Amino acid sequence: MPTTTTTSTKTSSLSPTTSTTTTRRPTAKTLQLLAAIFTIALVAAACGGDDDITNTLPQADCEINQIDGDLAIYNWAEYIDETLLEDFSNEYNTSVTLDVYDSNEAMQPIIAAGNSGYSLIVPSDYMVKILIAGSDIQPLNKSAIPNLSHVSSDFQDLVYDPDGDFSVPYQWGTTGLAVDTAAVGTDFPRSWGLVFDDSIAGQYSGQISLLNDPRETMGAALKYLGYSLNTTSEAELNEATQLVADARSNLAAFNTDSADELLTTGETVIAHGYSGDMFTQFLETDDPSRYVYFVPEEGGTRWIDNMAIPHDAPSPCTAHTFINWLLNAEQGATLSNYNYYGSPNTAALPGLDDELFDFITDPQVAPVDVLESIIDTGDFEVNFSDAFIEAKG
Questions:
Q1: pLDDT at res. 46
Q2: 108-116 LR contacts (CB < 8 Å, sep 24+)
Q3: How far apart are CA 246 and CA 391, in angstroms?
Q4: Mean pLDDT by 10 residues, the chain (393 residues)
Q5: Most distant CA pair in the chain: distance in Å?
Q6: 340 CB contacts (<8 Å, ≥6 apart)?
């Protein structure tokens, strides 16, 4: 698949040093949170059947806690507390490097080409299936990951990897819109029309951002038009392409890495973005109540991101050890409390912040009845990439 975005990269080299893990207070609402997460996860598991998996790569021959080299991670921006990486580095006496990307489509060709140097990646649901089909990720040696028992049963039997042979759920969340009520007010339509209806968006011209991601942004336009974000209709996708192209004159940017920061610094007043990114950024402002995140009434994306190991990972056993370590209770809670996304790790649930619970169970943040998962559309995937390039101009 062609690269459709420019990859934004930052690297953090973490050699073994002394560090202290920050521990957050536990929540008293664990059972309620479990119920809310399970409800959403069941929707993920019920998306449909899966094609036969033809990936025949061998498993890595790894033992529990084995380290076979340094760990190079390729992940989304601002998606893991680097204190966790420091702690892992210290505990296992190995160095960790972190590079970031801003879309699945930016990551996939780099991994598929080989010799990337990465031993762990974090692809989204639909991209896992693409990577499996391309033999771009290797099957997991589950005996080296005993903490797989902490993954909720409702985050298993997922459509993109039914047996969990190639991926481990990392975090889940939604994609929608965030607004600055100081500029937009509080009586605004909870609709994608804030971006795609010029009579509304024109009032905020130059102060709106869309994600630099073909499936998410074309999907938003498709949902506004009343279509599935997984359409394989060229006519429907052409309508969405024109809609995004027409919206371009009101945009400040197509931006994924800093959409949340652009909003809270006043450079934009309406931003397309991911639930956890937005709320975490809100909490860093003087008045978090000034900002609102919601999934528009026409619907939006509900996604699960996953950990996977590239086919030619230089340190596959270190990657297995890191996955197992991150599935511990303390590390899992630290991960979610940093990025404010939902956790599929049942051991981590008692350690989630109350604020996180309140956010991810807000009906505007996770309205199950209008959420849709992005799935692999096979040969039609290239149409989304081409459409996005055309729409961006």
A1: 36
A2: 108/1, 108/136, 109/1, 109/2, 109/3, 110/7, 110/74, 111/74, 111/136, 111/137, 111/310, 111/311, 112/1, 112/136, 114/311, 114/312, 115/312, 116/74, 116/310, 116/312
A3: 8
A4: 30 35 28 37 39 76 98 95 97 98 94 98 95 97 98 88 97 96 97 98 98 96 97 98 98 95 98 94 96 96 95 98 98 95 92 88 84 90 97 96
A5: 60
A6: 275, 276, 279, 280, 283, 355, 356, 359, 360
Residues 6+ apart with CB under 8 A from 392: 244, 248, 254
Q: Can you name the residues that pair with 72 across neighbouring β-strands?
A: 97
Distance CA 16, CA 205 (A): 48
Give the predicted TM-score (pTM) of the model: 0.75
Report, in angstroms and rounded to the nearest whole number, the Rg of the chain calculated over CA atoms: 20
Tokens 């404010």 appear where? 340
The residue whose two tokens read 């970031």 is 100
| CB-based contacts of 246, cutoff 8 Å, min separation 6 | 196, 198
Count of residues in the chain: 393
- Per the CB < 8 A criterion, the answer to whether 229 and 219 are in contact is yes
Neighbour-count burial of 351, counting CB atoms closer than 10 A to its CB (0-12 exposed, 13-18 middle, 19+ buried): buried
- Give which of 27, 48, 287, 54 is closest to 182, Cα–Cα: 287
CA distance to 47, 151, 308, 330, per residue, from 157 (Å): 10, 11, 16, 25
The torsion defined by the Cα of 349, 355, 360 and 363, in degrees rounded to 10, comes to 140
Half-sphere exposure of residue 137: CA atoms within 13 angstroms, side-chain side: 29
